[in-house]
Amino acid sequence: MKAGLILNVLFFSSGFLYANAWDIAVAVGDQVEFLNATGGVVGELSEGMSEVRALAYNADLRTLYFSDEERSDGSIFQLTVPKNMSAKLQNVTVSTVVSKQVHSVKGVAYDDRTGILYWSNGPGHSILWIQIGSTDEPQAGQPLLKVEDQIPMGIAIDNCKRYLYWTNCGKTASIERSLLDGSNRQTLTSEDLALPYAVVVDQTTDRIYWVDERPGAEFRIESADLHGKDRRVLFSGSDHQPFALAVSAGQVFWADHIHTSVWRLPLDSPHSTSTKLPVRAAAYHSSPKALVSAYSGVWTRERCNPVVQPVIKIIPATVTKTTTDPNPVVLRENTSHPICLNKGLWIRDEGYCNCLPGYSGALCEVDECLDYCVQGVCHITNEERECVCTDGYSGPRCEVPVCHNYCVTGTCSVDLRGQPQCHCKEGYSGDRCEVNFTQQQETDDSLQEVCLAFCKLWTQSSKENIQPFDVCSCPEMELISAQMTWDWYRDHVLLGLLAVCIGLSVLVVVLAKKVLVLRRRPRVKKRIIVNKSVTPLTSRPSEPQCEITIENCCNMNICETPCFEPDFRQPQTPHGKPSQNSKEEKKTLLGNMELPPDDLY
Q: Which of 165, 315, 348, 401 has its Cα between 20 and 30 A from that of 3?
């Protein structure tokens, strides 16, 4: 208890000594945001940043180291954090400390006792280092550990006991450590781990903490002592995808990809079980990628007396190659130029080695396919590297396990075709074990109860005040729907009949008008003109000529002088009597009339 109180006093006194008032730095896209212990924003920097992926901090010099995957002039950079974070204009100079790497940087750690910067490169199966300040030029880095069977991700340093910790997300996940010179490598734990992305060392409690993304959208925040013993689950849950981790101010912070947020949770003593829930410290529009605490260096000075392990000096690799090198530099006999390796051809006039495709370097010593494919075989095709992946892996470099996050529940295996196959737990089904029978049944039962309540309310209330609920089907609603359907058809049939009636009425009117027009058409009249010089064929008096209209001839009263037909022209019957047939009379009359030459008919 007294030791814990002393530690807290030391912590807060150190915090006031470094009056930056920030506890956590968060890398989000093209900027780094500085937060206090409760998640309040103290300041932010974005100078020279594009896509920040990893962070490390030197508290003595207030130097922030960050990796940037988008910049082409290097892989790891440094800047000095201003003392006054609230100032609007910041004079920040960004410089390159590590030249552009073939593999991306996954984690960064800084040893403030030796000034050495370490980083892991994931699919590159390596942990590398440089000495900060040894040169002003960017350094390529030297390998510390070559872990062919691992994918090192998170990396952390125990500055007191001089150990380097890292997480392995390879086929067999694990938490490992070694001394800072790469010797005495140990596997601390490999049981019940899925994807431990990040690890940190908390020297206030002498424990390590890591995040583990598990199948089925589950995750864990776990801890153990510095030897991997006394393993405990600080918090477990679902619907989070933790990626980065930091411990500061008595709390553990982690970055979550799903909610694009940073969460915090108080640390408990090693012998208690946490019942508290995490609190959202900050939320962002994009996923935070890295976290780092501001006080790791401060705690080193306060707690590392005496240092358990001595400060180990890492001797840089010498340029001179030994005879144990698989590709030694061999000089030609009686010449001053070396032999080109890997079947390269020495061009005497130009003084260089002409390398075969897939090799480069001054002596063709660089195999471009080396460590390029994470889980597969590399081939050079058209001067480009291509990977033929082993079963169970995919991606341009065979770096993605096909089973990664594929099965929601249950276990995943690779079939004969190299495709993921899920073996579901009891109560689950589907290609990815995503269907939960119990939850589905509970959902259906709950929906049925909701629908019963809705139908009751809908029946008892005014139908205009409640909108229909698509997922619920009520008996009265079905009747009303059928009635509405019948009314719709009836209305449309009536409208159709009305349209037909209107059409027929219009047709009748048009035909009636046509009949009337035909009745009024002019009739042809035949006029007979009787001249004075012609002896009349009738027995009428000799007067001026008379015009007779044949149509009205039956009336015989059109002219002033009536027409008479002599008796001798009347047809006789066999008995000597005049014929009574009027048609025959008219025919005889008209046939014996003389017509003038200008007859208009």
A: 165
